[in-house]
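A student in our group prepared the protein record below, which I am reviewing. Here is the record exactly as it was handed to me.
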Amino acid sequence: MFGKVAHVCMHTFLPDLIGTGSIVVDLGANDGDFAHAMIERFGCRVIAAEPVRDLLGRIQPHPLLQVLPVAVGGSNQSLSVNIYPSRCASVLGAVSVEEKAVTQSADMITLTEFLRRAGIDRMDLLKVDIEGAEIDMFDSCSDEELCLAMQITVEFHDFIYPEHLPAIRRICERMRDNGFAVLPFTFRNAADVLFINRESGVGRAEIAYLKSVSRYGRGLSRVLRRVAS
């Protein structure tokens, strides 16, 4: 269907670009809800990354699901993951002195290394929800690697780390320069951004329509917030 979008676990993407032969990469799998929803809906293969051991233990196995017990970010190294009581775990530090965390050791790898370990050279959908490490992940990737994805749905974390805003704008400009359409689906922050590759087959008319949908959706969310207040 022209201009059709789907929303799974607060991530927006184009479902018509995904089918039974598709490869979906899920960076930041959490407890596996996104991965299993994609498998159930599309019958596609999902390759996921999740470094937190407690969350890894909650991900139900499936023949179409492969989970790598790693964080994905800007370098290949061992580090500590901060596990917070009131938000998702992150390799980044606390935002206030009141915010306490317990730490857990983990391995971080770049997207380059993740693709090598997974043995894939294309992504029909790349979902990125890695709690602030997305800035370094994008910066460590080559343009060629990013273009292996037909669409990328990203939760940027400027709502937690507002200092990330200049880097987010820079990443969006880089994606445009590489032929991606940039569609934000949230109004006050960049918590749901979709990048669509020009090689995906999505035409200019459909992109223009989707941009109008994203603007309308952000405007509607603003109205709803005013009503709620």
Q: What stands out?
A: The two ends are 36 Å apart (CA to CA).
